[in-house]
Design a protein that fits this description.
Blueprint: H1 20-30, H2 43-54, H3 58-61, H4 64-70, H5 73-100, H6 107-115, H7 117-147, H8 159-179, H9 181-211, H10 229-242, H11 259-286, H12 291-295, H13 300-308, H14 315-344, E1 354-356, H15 363-377, H16 382-388, H17 391-410, H18 423-442, H19 444-455, H20 457-466, H21 472-489, E2 491-493
Antiparallel strand pairs: 1-2
Helix pairs in contact: 2-9, 2-11, 2-14, 4-5, 4-10, 5-10, 5-11, 5-17, 5-18, 6-7, 6-17, 7-8, 7-14, 7-15, 7-16, 8-14, 8-15, 9-11, 9-14, 14-15, 17-18, 18-19
Length: 499
Amino acid sequence: MEDPMPKESSAKKLDLEKEPMVEKLEIEGAKEEGIVLKQNLSLINGITVIVGSIIGSGIFVSPKGVLKGSGSVGMSLIVWLLSGVYSMIGAFCYCELGTSIVRSGADYAYIYEAFGPFLAFLRLWVECMIVRPCSQAIVALTFAYYVIEPLFPDCDQPEVPVRLLAVVCILILTFVNCANVGWATRVQDVFTYAKLAALCLIIVTGFVQLGRGEYEHFQEPFANTETNIGEISLAFYSGLFAYNGWNYLNFVIEELKDPYKNLPKAIWISIILVTCVYVMTNVAYFTTVSPDEILGGAAVAVMFSRRLYGIMWWIMPVFVSLSTFGGVNGILFTTSRLFYVGGREGHMPQILSMVQIQRLTPMPACLFMGALSLCYLASSDIYALITYVGFATWLSIGMAVVVLMYLRWKRPDMPRPIKVHLIWPIIYTIVTVYLVILPLYASPVETFIGLGIICTGIPVYIIFIAWTSKPKIFTRYMDGMTVWLQKFLMVVPEEKKVD
């Protein structure tokens, strides 16, 4: 099958004859494999990327969205379980996509493959320029908030120190991701283990509470269950957002060892694990915290620890901060690869598609992602912005699953190491269409604002990508800037080893 996506970057490489030091470093860093992002991610790394990206601060802070929409303890637990099953179906479809189109970028690469550059660019534009940087800034703020929570137990945290600590968090993790892929994966591993340890502590404590007879809220589990289909839909919307991140390993699949085996294994293990942990954690909460308290917006994990752990209550804010620190790292690690792939395909500045010759990391993409997140961190409207474009996530994932069915029709002979039954992408697509339409009913103004933000990518695409006969002064300036940045950062375009 001929590859419709251009693989070679048109960027100028460093003149190695004039830069003998650069040539030496390139040979030393690349050895026989060339300048390329290596397959450093093991199965365990893949699992921690997915689990660490899914589990953020929400399960610790307040799962009230699910409870509010479902109306009862029993129904809320069913929503958590079904949200995990639905995410599993989507992940099952992504196993086929990821093993038949082995390119980093996930749904961006899949949409490009099937529907061409325009729709793929709009997906890239919203995800890279708004959704991911905003999300990283928000998670970094949550990290900072909980780090200093023990210092201000009975009052609000001062805003300036919180924002400065969030800046430090992003700067440290940007440095780690620029310096060494192994460092970034170890950070992801360690902090994923930390958040799982925190949730296991809550779960074990919950079982102890059940053993003590603390099951008051389970005696009539379906009392006050919501019967309005719109409210229950909003509960599922909240539950599914808590599972957001199950597709993040597909964004870095080119760096995964033996992706045909490890991608499906990592996805299945991760989502089953997260689903079990989410359901059992909510059971544990209900042994100690009442539904009314959860609906009141209480920081559930902290309230749980204050009531049961005595003077050691502060360990829960520490665990939440560790969880969010790992979340920031996961967003940065995967999104930098999305910038990297976008640059490689000509949808982002070419410098973002380049690799540092000593460290073999996508340094320009990591730096750009970190800088963009810091810019959003200075804004007071980032929460509103992420709300406006949140439905775009479901739209793009739904389109990616449609790609699976489209390629079954257009390319029936395409190699598919994993082939799912068509009933699964059909079910997932039907539910996703509903999830895309739901915001129009629940918050029409915000949804139309979000559509407007997405459409801002259209003139950008026309001017910088579709328009090929740009003035020579512009192309000379861009080429000169690219070469200067290459020399400053010591980066070159990716090179594939020639057999």
